[in-house]
Design brief:
By secondary structure, this protein is mainly alpha-helical. Helix content is 71%, strand content 0%.
């Protein structure tokens, strides 16, 4: 029957997954010489995995070399497994050569990970210049990202500022500015929130007083927003930004309810906090510019906190509230849209050693943060009542 070889391959894989390794090798061995390179390569790959699990590393290496030589769409996996085994055996130059063969044949989405491994091996063997070139390749695979949400937020803030300043008769266009009708209707102010104007908890993050206020905030967002958006993706970045803005405004109505506050600073401090936590906990594969920015976020955070508490009329509650929310999110959730070095390591069977957090669990985490902020809002309203 035409399907018999594929059925045999599926049965061999089933036995391999069940741990019946000798039986898996026995049923897969006749397929290794099949004229279809796809079947032959797949059989050799599975036999190599079985040999490795049987502690027959030389046999595993030989099988993976056969898989690489048979070619087909999965031949690159054979080269990658050969490279991994050469690393375990301490043959780093041979590992580099095998990874380079895998790189030539691998799908485009896999080449960044392979280039990163080549870079580390070259660095380990003293080839610093070639190592830097491979690191640039690895980062370049993830270095182009269109930060649509960041740019949209900047555009909305700018448009709201222009409209509010114009409605205020132009006085808002000064360096320190003044409050226009939009500011009066949307600023964070505890008694008004308690009276039912809940939208102020969000609208306050899109209002600014004067050109200096909006310029500093939008410049910081332009620097860090695209990095965080690349790490977490468009949708999650939008959620993170709004939660950080809400966190700053909730802390404001809790601790300073009678002082009106506006500005995107709470959300931006949240991005600082998230960037600081993530950059210390994860080894992210980002472009050189993004990595350089993340390396400076700790210093920028300290300087901005000093300014927050040193200059009068700055809403420290907004800054600290956003910072705490961003830090908590960074602590709970790894970036979903950018790979980490730890997340690239695989078991001998090709499966990832680090498991990704499921979308449902990620959503539940954001909902939990939102629930805590809703509870904080309720407590603040009860105090004001």
């Amino acid at each position: 029957m035409a399907d018999e070889p594929r059925q045999r391959l599926a049965e061999g894989q089933r036995l391999l997954d069940a741990g019946d390794l000798d039986a898996a090798v026995q049923i897969l061995a006749p397929l290794t010489g099949h004229p279809d390179a796809e079947l032959g390569s797949a059989a050799w790959l599975a036999i190599g995995d079985a040999r490795y699990r049987l502690d027959d590393e030389p046999g595993a290496l030989a099988a993976w070399q056969h898989a690489a030589e048979r070619g087909g769409s999965r031949g690159w996996l054979g080269w990658r497994k050969v490279a991994e085994q050469e690393v375990r055996d301490g043959h780093l130059d041979e590992a580099v050569a095998a990874y380079q063969e895998a790189d030539r044949r691998a799908p485009s989405e896999e080449r960044g990970a392979i280039a990163n491994r080549i870079a580390w091996l070259l660095k380990e063997t003293g080839h610093d210049f070639a190592s830097r070139r491979q690191f640039n390749r690895a980062r370049g695979a993830y270095g182009s990202y269109q930060a649509w949400v960041t740019w949209a937020i900047i555009a909305i803030n700018a448009a709201v500022f222009v409209v509010d300043a114009a409605l205020a008769g132009g006085s808002g266009f000064s360096l320190t500015g003044g409050s226009g009708p939009l500011t009066n209707a949307g600023a964070v102010y505890g008694p008004d929130v308690a009276a039912g104007e809940w939208w102020r908890l969000i609208t306050g993050a899109f209002l600014h007083l004067g050109i200096l206020h909006i310029a500093f905030n939008m410049y910081a967002l332009w620097l860090f927003g695209p990095i965080i958006e690349q790490m977490y993706g468009h949708v999650e970045f939008a959620v993170i930004y709004l939660l950080c803005a809400l966190g700053g405004n909730v802390l404001t109505i809790l601790l300073a309810p009678n002082v009106p506050a506006v500005g995107a600073s709470g959300a931006i401090f949240g991005l600082f906090g998230l960037a600081f936590v993530v950059s210390r906990r994860r080894h992210l594969l980002l472009g050189p510019q993004a990595r350089a920015m993340l390396s400076r976020v700790g210093t920028l955070l300290v300087l901005n906190l000093i300014i927050t508490f040193a200059i009068p009329y700055i809403s420290w509650t907004g800054h600290v509230g956003g910072l705490v929310v961003g830090g908590v999110i960074g602590l709970l959730l790894a970036p979903a849209n950018v790979p980490t070095m730890g997340g690239m390591w695989r078991a001998p069977d090709g499966s990832l050693l680090a498991r990704r957090i499921s979308p449902s669990l990620r959503a539940s985490t954001y909902l939990l943060v939102a629930a805590v902020l809703v509870l904080g809002t309720y407590v603040a309203i009860q105090q004001l009542g």
